Amino acid sequence: MKLELTTAKKWIALFVEKLENNMAVLNELDTAIGDGDHGTNMKRGAEAITAAFAKKEPETLADLYKTTAFAMIQKVGGASGPLYGTAFLDMSKAEKSDELELGDLLQIGTDGLKRRGQSDVGMKTMIDVWQPVSEAAKNNQLNQKVIDDALAKGKDLVATKGRASYLEEKSKGHIDPGSQSSAYLFESLIEAIGA
Ligand code: ADP
Ligand code: MG
Ligand code: MG
């Protein structure tokens, strides 16, 4: 399937809403294995997305993803700002030349994360959610269970990238905050699609 502009707008609007409603949850997860700011960072990004859309309503998919990317890069900060920013910027560039299938679009975002973060699956980062979600979308099998399974699997991992990696074995048994915010992103997508 391909995303229509209206569906994609709904996707990002729902993501913004979830970030605003769950700042404390994300901060708590980050307090356990990081520096406690992931919720605050992402809420700042959410507000920046809203402000940017109010200033200029996106008219294309490429526009929508680019505006989202810039808001993330400029306002989220931390490790996650440039990561989300790169994922959305790469998706924006790809939409410019092609009408992408959803799974291919998400894979491009995932590849951007890997490149920017010099990371891959199994390192207890948001990639542990993005990659299986992309895979499922390519097979037209994206649903809530894919996200829940990815979070559960990531919980048992030892972090080898990001701040949580400083904790080594002690990072085990905790949900990675960036994986949780990515879960909100893809739960928003499922809701927007109405799947
Ligand atoms: P910071 O760690 O700088 O305070 P955040 O708390 O906003 O930034 O974001 C932390 C999240 O970023 C982690 O939970 C993880 O999912 C993600 N992350 C950190 N480093 C990497 C990396 N190298 N590759 C992919 N994701 C990463
Ligand atoms: Mg943090
Ligand atoms: Mg920080």
From TrEMBL:
It comes from the Bacteria. The keyword Kinase applies. Signal peptide: none annotated. It is an enzyme of class 2 (transferase). Pathway: Polyol metabolism; glycerol degradation. Residues 6-191 form the DhaL domain. The keyword Transferase applies. This is phosphoenolpyruvate--glycerone phosphotransferase. It comes from Companilactobacillus mindensis DSM 14500.
